Amino acid sequence: MSPQAMLNGKSSQVTEQAVEVIHQRIQEGTYAIGSTLPSQRDLATRLGISRASLREALTRLAALGLLEIKAGKGVYVISQHSKAAEQWEGEHRISLKDFYQLRYVLEGFCALLACEYLTEQDKLILKQHYEALSNAILQQNWQAASEFDYAFHQHIIDLSHNQSIIQTLKMHNEWIKKSQILPFVQPNLAFKTIKEHDAILQALFKQDALAAEKAMQAHIIGAAQRAGVYFSRHES
Questions:
Q1: How far apart are alpha carbons 118 and 161 in whole angstroms?
Q2: CA–centroid distance for 153 within its chain
Q3: For the chain, which end, N or C, has fewer CB atoms within 10 Å of the first or last residue's CB respectively?
Q4: Burial, 172: exposed, middle or buried (Cβ in 10 Å; 0-12, 13-18, 19+)?
């Protein structure tokens, strides 16, 4: 990702891209654990972004547990993985990145298939789940939000009518529930969850299968990033 490409985006997109670039450099060892990042002025220049966007990106990475910001001393790399990813990998047999990628593939396809079977009753149920999720986020009730998020996704999975996918994901119910609360580690970004679910809902209501698949995949990518996990998009 080039700095020039970052300059062309909106402020929020620039910040997201800066987070991803710095995260990647930490993963690659360019910024090693224990080292300090270049000065904010230098790093902002190298990335081709404003210092305000860079500060927001650094704050985001610090919240995830990758960086420590010491006033007057600099920004230190303290981990290659987010706190959420480290906790997950200490409890499960597969990485958090692998699991989000599984959800990306299977739930995206479920959203596509759901458009074929969606009824007016299903639309009502999904809308109720969406509204409950939104209200829980606005009230900062993260446990309730994750439960309503699960209900929303589970209904779409069931609507796929693909028993192979349904049974595969059913075996990982508890993992799915946990992966749905992890993105709320950054409460200030929770509004993105509402926006992403609205995009899924609108595509489903129009029964636009490709748009529904794309919206679901974009949401899984966004949720993964809010938990400190990054993987490549696959655009057609």
A1: 11
A2: 15
A3: C
A4: middle
State the pLDDT confidence band at 231, using cuts at 50, 70 and 90.
confident
Domain boundaries, the chain: 3-80, 84-226
Topology match between the domains 3-80 and 84-226: no
**Rounded distance between C-alpha atoms, residue 223 and residue 227, angstroms:** 6
Q: Residue range 47-68: average pLDDT?
A: 90
Q: Which of 47-61, 108-122, 196-210 has the lowest mean pLDDT?
A: 47-61
Structure tokens at 190: 């929770």
Four-way CATH pick for 3-80: 3.40.50.300, 3.60.140.10, 3.30.420.40, 1.10.10.10: 1.10.10.10
Superfamily name and number for 84-226: GntR ligand-binding domain-like (1.20.120.530)
Q: Tell me the sheet residues that pair with 68.
A: 76
Helix (H/G/I), strand (E/B), else coil: 38: coil
Mean pLDDT of 166-175: 92
- The residue type at 84: A
- Kindly give the residue spans of alpha helices, DSSP state H, lying in the chain: 3-7, 11-28, 40-47, 51-64, 83-91, 96-117, 120-138, 142-159, 163-170, 173-181, 191-205, 209-226
